[in-house]
Design brief:
Immunoglobulin-like, 12 strands, single chain, alpha+beta, five-stranded mixed beta sheet, about 180 residues
Length: about 180
């Protein structure tokens, strides 16, 4: 087998392993979405909240979050912080609760190999963070935003921890390859 082909197969195997490690088995997945009875404990509780990109999660307060799969791109020269590569995510927030929801409460933290990575702001590509941070999301309404984070040149396992409010203990973790 040619060395380039071997390297490509190894890279593919690593990516599949990273994506597979973020999976949720059927029983734990239903617990995370309210389909199972009884509370989950310890590590099982955290794993039950791990979702693959694209999945929707409903928090106890009625806020529903969905995070799209990452899209790799090259930030422009005016982007901050400087990064040779970034991953962007579409985030949809739906207020299924009884009260309004302030978008500024949304907390999204990205990590690579357990270490935080910085959010990219790139106005030339429409990436300004939560642009309607002061906006109240009325009951039954949805909002879409795009967030981006710096990632290394090589494909890597990326996780996003999402909370409806930084002060809340409720968190859902999305993970996959970026």
């Amino acid at each position: 087998m040619a060395p380039a082909r071997t390297a490509q197969l190894l890279l593919t195997a690593c990516l599949l392993t990273a994506v597979g490690a973020c999976g949720v088995d059927a029983q734990e997945g239903t617990a995370a979405l309210g389909g199972a009875t009884g509370p989950a404990k310890g590590a099982a509780a955290q794993q039950a909240r791990d979702l693959q990109f694209g999945a929707e999660h409903r928090f106890a307060n009625g806020i529903m979050i969905s995070v799209s799969a990452p899209q790799s791109f090259q930030p422009g020269p005016a982007a901050y912080p400087r990064s040779s590569r970034a991953a962007s995510f579409g985030v949809e927030i739906t207020n299924g609760g009884a009260d309004f929801y302030r978008l500024s409460g949304l907390s999204v933290v990205a990590t690579i190999d357990g270490k935080p990575t910085k959010q990219i702001v790139d106005a030339t590509q429409g990436l300004g963070g939560i642009t309607d941070a002061g906006k109240d999301l009325q009951q039954g309404r949805s909002a879409q935003l795009t967030l981006a984070f710096a990632v290394p040149e090589r494909p890597t396992k990326l996780t996003l921890q999402v909370r409806p409010s930084a002060a809340e203990s409720a968190v859902v973790t999305y993970c996959g390859a970026a």
